[in-house]
Amino acid sequence: MDALPLLLLAILTFLTLLAVSILATVYFRMFRATLFTVMQAKVTVTILDRSGNRATFSKRMSIRANHKGLTQYIHRNLSADGSMQNFRVDRVTVQPQKDAGDYLVYVNFPRPLNRGETLPTILDIDLTASFPSTTEWVTYLLTYPTKELTVEVNLPSDRPASKAEVYCLRGGEIEPVDTKPQLLDNNCRIVWTATDLRDLGWEYRIQWTWPEV
Q1: Euclidean distance between CA atoms 38 and 34, whole angstroms
Q2: Does the pLDDT at position 44 exceed 90?
Q3: Which of 8, 61, 125, 172 shows its CA 20 to 30 Å from the CA of 75?
Q4: CB contact set of 160 (below 8 Å; sequence gap of 6+)
Q5: Residues 6 or more apart in contact with residue 28 via CB below 8 angstroms
């Protein structure tokens, strides 16, 4: 056989394998993104002292299985300035796993879920030295379609916020969000709610300014 047909065959084989690999990757990402729908999520950060040294993080969720037989949910991209410790899932202490500098926390279901079944779950974490600056923020990365998201930040009564904003981080750019957070309880409670969030990979930042210690 001539060298030219062999070369063309090799190129064709390579392109076919490349196409199959790309399609498999796209399918996997799309499949993973549709495993669950978050029906409701509430993230609450409570800062326990004026210096911002001690704080708690809580994520309460109601998740719906979009496929039959799912056995676990994974909290991804958990990170903070300072340190994170005492991870609890549904009040039970768990051991997180490291993933490229962030934490992963696995929620194992008591049994495989049926398609359309909804399950509540709570993730709690203690934070240390995570809010030392005069401008701080809490972020939420959208990993699954979310029907309703609420982010609440509770500040010490003697260190209220002077202002609060919400930004969206996408494609390396930061853009303001139209819906503004509420400043309540003498500016010591920040609350932001959004509905029907579908742009996976977008990161929402609830940012506030408060006085120096």
Answers
A1: 10
A2: yes
A3: 172
A4: 186, 187, 188, 210
A5: none
pTM of the model: 0.82
- Taking CA atoms, 170 is separated from 72, 86, 174, 201, in Å, by 28, 31, 7, 7
Take residue 196 and report the two structure tokens written for it. Answer: 């029907």
Q: What is the pLDDT of residues 114-162, one digit of tens each?
A: 999 999 999 999 999 999 999 999 999 999 999 999 999 999 999 999 9
Name, in order, each residue with C-beta under 8 angstroms of 199's C-beta and a sequence gap of 6 or more: 142, 170
Beta carbons of 128 and 52 less than 8 angstroms apart: no
Write down the domain spans for the chain: 1-33, 34-209
Residue with tokens 């509540």: 120
The predicted pLDDT at position 31 comes to: 44
The two tokens of residue 53 are 């040294």
Fold of 34-209: Immunoglobulin-like (2.60.40)
Q: Please report, as a single letter, which amino acid is at residue 166.
A: V
Question: Is 95 strand, coil or helix?
Answer: coil
In the chain, where does DSSP find H-type helix?
A: 3-33
